[in-house]
């Protein structure tokens, strides 16, 4: 998408090369080109999908410089198809921003979750090396609460079944329907989550990531959807930017993305490879 974003005239952009930079504005013509540029398109079952549901590459689409993640369901797990894609697993200290269009569907009771996050694999229950920072939007409520809300979470570890998690979460109630600028800063001793430049929360201690992570987006369904007619939901991603080793403001990240787009740069990846596999299964 090429929506004009004004550069802040008084913001001096830093020297971007040090530490590496990753940028994608999703202008690829098709899913094959998306794969060729390094993204992993999830195909199969597993967390966080409902038991019996599945992830499918066909739930992802590209058009007009936007990536769309779709979810389809009739409330039955066997008829529920989810979307997820993941970048290479090589991101840790630095700042990551995505411009996303979250979507509400008034009247729906389906507990859909629209997510932008960075994560490493969970090797086993209570894996001490597990790392994740995420934004999760629940437009129709879910997880035992009816309220519409947005989470910013930094994770220590988790056991999937039966569920037991150790993390630090910041929550903002209310609708976030529309375009949002989501930024997470990861430093050696803390993380900060921002929504449209406003601090959502700061997390510390064991919740701070310690292992390289993959930048990811997914669209999934939590437990509690009523059975009925088929329905479909979607949300979009305009661009994603990571500046390795740098703590940068949301305004500086937006300005840099705008600068790249105005120069006609669709993709940059100078972040060194970690040699780790992006499993895209969490």
Q: In short, what is this structure?
A:
This protein has 282 residues and is mostly beta strands. The protein has helices at 31-36, 250-262; strands spanning 21-24, 40-41, 54-55, 60-63, 66-73, 81-91, 94-102, 112-119, 132-138, 149-159, 164-173, 178-186, 190-195, 198-204, 213-221, 231-244, 267-269. The longest helix is centred in the C-terminal third of the chain and has 13 residues, at 250-262.
Over the alpha carbons, how many angstroms does the gyration radius reach?
Answer: 18 Å
Total beta strand runs: 17
Outline the low-pLDDT stretches.
1-17
Task: Tell me the helix content.
Answer: under 10%
Distance between the termini: 28 Å
Question: What percent of residues are in strands?
Answer: 35-45%
- What's the total helix number? 2
Determine the mean pLDDT. 93
Largest sheet: 9 strands, antiparallel
What is the string of helix and strand elements? EHEEEEEEEEEEEEEEEHE
Please identify the structural class as seen in this structure.
Answer: mainly beta
